[in-house]
Amino acid sequence: MTRRFDPEPYLPLTSSMFQVLVALADGEKHGYAIIKEIRRRTSDKVRLGAGTLYTLLSRCVDDGLIVESDERPDPALDDERRRYYRLSDNGRALALAEADRMEEAVGQARAKLARKPRTA
Amino acid sequence: MTTHQARWFRRLVRVLFPGDFRAAYEADMTRTFSAQEQEARESGVRAVARLWLETLTGLLRTAPREHLAQLRQDVAFALRMMWRTPAFSVIAILTLATGIGANTAMFSIVNAIMLRSLPYADPDRVAMLWNHWPGSDKAALSMPELLDFRERAKTVDVAAWANDTANLMGDGDPERVRVAVVTANMLELLGVVPALGQGFSTDHEKTSPSVQPLLGDEIVLTDELWRRRFGGVLDIVGRRVVLDRQPVTIVGVLPPGFALPTEFDEIERVAVLRPVTLNSAGQRNNRGVHFLQAVARVRPGFSFDQADGEIAGIAEHWRAQEWRGDYDDGYGASLLPVQTEVAGEVRRPLLVLLGAVGLVLLIACANVANLLLARSQARSQEIGVRKAAGASEARLVRQAITESLVLAGAGGATGIAMAQWLTTLVARSAPQLPRVADAGIEGTVLWFTVVVSVAAALLFGGLPAVQMARRDVTENLSNQSSRATSKRALRGVLVAAQIALALILLIGAALLMQSFARLVGVPTGIDPDRVLTLRVSLPTDGYRERERTVRFFDELLDGVRALPGVRGAGAVSSLPLSQTMFDATFYLPGEVANNGNRNTDFAVVTPGYLEAIGTKLLRGRLHGRSDIGTSPAVAVINDYLARTFFPGSDPIGQQIRFGFGQPWTIVGIVEDVRHRGLSVPPQSQVYLPHSQFTPFWPDTTVRSLALVVRTSGEPSTLTSQIRARLRELDANVPIAQVTTMHDIVDQSVASERLQTGLLAAFAAIALLLAVVGTYGVLAYQVTERTREIGLRMMLGANKGDVLRLIVRQGMLPAAAGVIAGLAGAALVSRGLETLLFETTPLDAATFGVAAAALLLAALGACVVPARRALRLEPGTALRAE
User: What does each C-alpha distance from B434 to B110, B265, B427, B664 come to in angstroms?
Assistant: First the structure.
C-alpha cells in the first residue's frame, strides 16, 4: 500500500520550482519548452538558465514529483531528440498545496491592509 | 547541430558538475542551451550576452549544490554502512585513532617547543653570545669581555645577566627567590614590554667608576611571583619591599610566560630582575672570571651571519693579538640563535619521536586497508548491482573514498581526545622540556589533525576503492574473482609492510633502552642513596664579611651533624647534575700569569661535603676545619685534571693559580664527578674551601650553598629538624629546593627516560597492530579458502599439509617484512646515533633479537587461524560458499 503524499515538508517552494511544476501542469514538455513557458507566463520576469532548470528537474525526479518521459524530436524546433518531463500526481498535489498556501497568505495580507490603522 | 557556443557550454558543464549528474543531463542541457542561444541570437548581441550572464550565474550557483548533495548522500551511506558493521567500524576507528592521536600529540609538543614564536620581539634576530673553550662550547663571559663586546661590536647590541638568589621580605614570610642581575637594556633588547609599570631607568646604563658594579634599587617582578606572593594587585608598581635586607622599589611586572633565553627548560625560573651598573675598570686579572650570560640582538641592516662573523672576529683578535697568551688555540666566541638555544637539545629526539608516530600511523593505515579489502570482497554483490544499474567507476570510487574520509574523521575526532590525554601526560612527566606546558590542542594542531586524517583516508582507502570499482560486473554478481591470487598478494604486501615498519620501531626502541640502561649505570662519582639536599641563602645585610658567612654555615652544619640519623653533612655552591659550577681560567706551576690559558669548573665547598656526597678520595686529603681564612689556600682537584695537566708527576703539593687571587696548593685528588650530565664526560674540576674563597662579583663571599646531608634512614624525615636548627641561628633565612640526591639524578635523565619510554610505547603499539593485522588477514584467508582446503583434504592432503599451507601464508609476508625491516632499520638507526650513549646504532645482537621476536609474534598470530583450518571437515568445507 503506497503511503499518502504529504506536501508539508516541501513548503514553501522556491519561486523557480513552483514555476517548473506549474509549467508541466498542462502536459509533458522538454527543457527548452519549460523555460519558454515560464518566461511567457511571467512576462519574462522569471528567466531560468539551463543549469538552474536541470538541477531542479534532477531533484524533482529524485523526489518523484516529476517523471522523465521518452526522448523524441520537437517538430517545432529541429530534429534533435529531447527528453520530455511530465508532472506526477505527487508533483501536482505539491503545486496545488503551494498555490493554496500563497492564496491564503495573499488573502490575509489583503484583509489586513484594507483595515484602517488604530490611532493611540 | 552543436554551435561553437554550445560546445563551450558543454565544456563548462563537464568541469563544474559531478559525473552522475552529467551522465543523466549533460546532453539535454546542451540541447536546451543551444535552443536558447539560437533564440537570443535572433534578438541581437545584447540578448546573447544576457543569456550567457544568466547561464554562468546559474551554473556557478547550482553546481556546488549538486556536489554537496552527492556528498550528503555519500556520507549518509557511509554512516549507514558503519552502523551495519559495528565490529569492523569500531576496530577501524580505534586503529586510526591510535595512529592519528599519537601524531597529534607529538605535533602539539613539537609545535609548542620548536614552531611557536618565542615571547620576544622579532626573535629571529636574537641570539645568545657564548664563549667556546676546548671541551665547552657554551661558556659564560667575563665582565671585561662583555664590556669589550658592547664597545666594539657594530652589528649587535648586547645585554647580559648573572644568576643570583636573594631573600625577599615584605608582604609575607621571607622567601628565597631567584634573581637575575641584568644590564639595564635587557628588557629593551629582548623586546619585552612589562605588563604593568615599566622597565629600568637608563641611568643604569652608565658604567660605574667603582671597582664593584652597583646593584640598582629598582626591581621588576615576574607575573608568577606577582600573582602568587602579591595576589595580583594592580597597585604593585611603586611598592617598596626588602631584598636581602635592602629596600627596593617594584617598578614593573613582566608579562605571563616570560623567561630568559636559557630558562625555558628550567622548572624554577628567575622571579625578580634587578639592574646593575657595570664596572668599567675591567681589570686584566678578572678577564678569566666567567659568570655572565650574554644575549645579543642583531641591529637593523645587518644579517645574522654578519653579526656572527663580527663576534668571532673580535674573539679571534683577542686570541691572536690583543690578549695573546691569555686565550689558547681552542678559544672562540659566536652567536647561537635563541630558538636553537631553547629547542636545540631536544630537536633531534622530538623529530625521532615524530617520525616514530608517523610509522605507527602508516601501520594503522595498512591495517585498515586490509580490513577494507576484505570488506570489499563481502560487498561485491552490492557493487555489482550498482554497476549494473549504471553507476560509473568514478562514482563508486568517490563513494568509497567518502566512506574512508568518514572513518578517518571518526578516527581523528577520537584521536584528538587521546592526544589531549597523551600531551598532558608528557607535560607532567617531563616539565623540564622547554615550553612543554604550552603544548595543547589548538588551531594549528587541529589543522594538522585534519590534514593527517585526510591523508590517512586517501592512503588506506585509495587502493581498496580502486580495486573494488574495477572488478567486472559478473565477478561482483557471482562473488567470485579470477584475480584472487593477486588480491592475496596485495594483502600479503600490506602485512609485510606492517611487519617491516613495526620492526624498525622495535629496533629503535631496543637501542634506546640499551642506551638508557648504560646511561643510568655509568659511574657518577657520587653516591646518591639516602642523601638529602636543600639550599640556604644568606642575605647581604648581616653577612657581608666572609668570616661571618663561614661561621654561620659551620654552626649550621655542626648542628645538622649532631641530629640522630645523620652520617655526614657538608655544603657546596652547586650540586652535581643540578646547577652549573663556576668556571675560571687557571695556570699551572711555572707558567706566567696571562700566558697560557686553560679553563676549569670549580665549586666552593665546606668541610664534609665530598664525604657526604660520596666522592672518593684517591690521594692526599680533603678540606678540613684547619683550612681557615688565614692559613695557606688549598685546593682539591679531580682525577681528570691531575691526569691531563700533571702527566707523570704528582700534583699533591704543587700550586695552581686562577685569573684572580692567590695561588692554591693542591692537597688532594678525588674521583671524577659527572657534574654536567650523566652522558657528559667529566672535565677539569677544582674544589675550593668556602673559608678561603673570595669571588670577584656580585658578592664578596658565596652566601648561597646547598647543604648535603647523608642519612641512615629516610632523608626527608630530617627536613623539619634542619629547619629548626636554621631558625635557631637566623629566623629570617628560609630553606629552599628541598629534595634528595636520588631525585636529582633521576631528574637529570628525565628527558632520556621520556624519549625511551615513548618510543618503547610506540613500538609496542606498532607490534600489536602488526600482529593483529597478520592474524586478521590470515583468519580471513582461511575463510576465503575453506572450499579449497576441503578439496585438498578430499584429494589426500593431511593435517600437516594444511598446517604448512596456512602457516606459509602467514609467515612468507612476515619473513619478507622482517628482511625489509632490517634493511630499513639499518638506514634509519643512524639517525639515532646522537641520542645513543655507548651504544652502536648497528648493534647486530639487537637487530637479531628484535627480528626473532617479531617472527615469533607473527607465528603466534598464525596459530588460531591454523587451528581453525585443521578443524575443518572436508564435506562441510566443500559445501561452504
Answer: 10, 4, 10, 40
